[in-house]
Structures are given as structure tokens and as C-alpha cells.
Amino acid sequence: MRVETGFILIGRLTLKFLITYGRLTIMTGQALLALRRLPRYLDQVIEQYIYIGKRSLPLICVGSIFMGLLMGVQIGTQISETTPVWVEGGLILRTVLLEMGPIIMGIVLAGRVGSGIASELGTMKITEQVDALRTMGINPIEYLVMPRIFSGVIAFTMMIVFVDFLALLAAFVSSYFTVDMTWTGFVRGMRHSYVQSDVFTSLIKASIFGFIVTAFGSFFGLQASAGAKGVGNSTTKAVIWSSLSVIVLDYIISATLYMVW
Question: Which long-range contacts (CB under 8 A, 24 or more apart) does 130-135 make?
């Protein structure tokens, strides 16, 4: 009896998972098709770009600086005495570009951007503002979702440049005080390990994470049920699923691009 109950539970969870991702796929597909009408919604795109990019930049800058400081200490103290100090510059460069920069930005902004979008759209849903848009002949996907996803992709891709640069600069400062790293040695290590494809990998991850975070935030926001509790649940789901997706996709993208490059 317990075995049957377990299989029933697994079946229900699987069915719920497939239904949710089916609806998410339909919504994102409609949002991508709505890009053909992008010029009509430029005001919404600019507004969302300011919210996602400009207002998130201070948070990202602070996070990237402390990430770089931490990496300078950890990598510097792990290098053996027989290893040249300048090697640390190359290790930090590739770690920031390939992994730490994109994934830290994705997880941090999943909490800030994903929750903000979900709560905003959830409030619009329960106050019947979304229904009002349909009544006026405005497609909610075109007006609400498409500008957020498009702005998220652009904003994430641009912010990763600041994240990588500040993290590397902070890592050098930390390395200078930890292992007496010189700027010449740090640059030598970066030039020795630099691979152009690492930059493209960082940009690709950032753009995909921007798509994922804004898509999940929009989807769960529009799925909010009535009441403040429903908006809270939708916001929580948006943060959890976008953060988890960032981690999973980070591995998938890394493994795929490793074979491609």
C-alpha cells in the first residue's frame, strides 16, 4: 500500500512539473514571437532596462568586489611555494570568466530581479489589472512579459562586464596584500592563461541567465492566486526555480561549450 502511495505521489509531482514547464514554454514562446512588435513597446523596454540593469548595478558591484577579494585570498593561500606567484592571475581570470562571475550574478539577481518581477506581476494579477489589459485589447504577454525578458537579456549581458572587471581588480588588491602580488605579475598570469572563448562563455551564460530569471519571474507572477499569500508564494517560487535553473544551466552550458570550443 505504501509503495502504491509512493508511486502515486511521484506521478502527481511529475505531472505537475510537466504541466508547469509546458505553460512556461508556451509563455516564453509567445514572448519570443512578440519580439516582432518590439518597436511598439520601446517605452516599456527602457523602463524595465532601468529597473533590471541600472538599479541592480550597485548590488552587483558590491558583490563582485567581495567575490574578487575572497578569491584573491583563497587562491593565493593555496598556491604552493614551488609555484610562481604570477600563476594566480591566470587562475583568477579563468575562474571569474567561466564560473564565478556569471553564476554569482545570476543567483544574486534571481533574488532581486526575479522576486521583483514576480511580486509586481502577481499584484497586477490579483488586482485584475491583467484582465483590464485584455479588456482593452492589449496582449499581457506583449505588454508585460516580452519587455522584461528582452531587457533582462540585454541588462545581464552588459552587467557581466562590470562584474568580471571589478572582480579581477579586487582579486589583484587582495593578492597584493596576501602574497605580495605585483601588477606586472598579475597581468602576466592573465595573459598566459587568457583564452578568447572564455569571454564569449561569460557573455553567453549571462544572457541565458537573464532570460531564465525574467522568464521565471514573469511566469510565476502571472500564475499568482488571489490574496497577499498567493503573491508571496509566487515570489518564493520564482526565486527558488530561477536560482536552481541558474545552477543547473551553468553546468549544462559549461559542458556544452567545452565540447564546442
Answer: 130/222
Measured distance CA(180)–CA(175) in Å, rounded: 7
pLDDT tens for 196-247 read 899 999 999 999 999 999 999 999 999 888 777 888 899 999 999 999 999 9
Residue type, 25: T
Number of domains observed in the structure of the chain: 1
- 45-51, Cβ contacts within 8 angstroms, sequence gap of 24 or more: 45/147, 45/150, 45/151, 46/151, 47/147, 48/147, 48/148, 48/150, 48/151, 48/152, 49/151, 49/154, 49/155, 51/113, 51/116, 51/151
Q: What is the DSSP string of 200-254?
A: HHHHHHHHHHHHHHHHHHHHHHHT--SSHHHHHHHHHHHHHHHHHHHHHHHHHHH
Q: Left if phi > 0, otherwise alpha if psi is -120 to 50, otherwise beta: which for 206?
A: alpha
Can you give the residue range of the structural domain that contains 121?
Answer: 2-260
Contacts of 179 (CB under 8 A, 6+ apart): 76, 77, 79, 85, 88
Beta strands in 141-191 (DSSP E): none
Burial code of 110-124, b = ≥16 C-beta within 10 A, e = fewer?
bebbbbbbbbbbbbb
Instruction: Quote the CA–CA distance of 255 and 84 in Å, as a whole number.
Output: 30
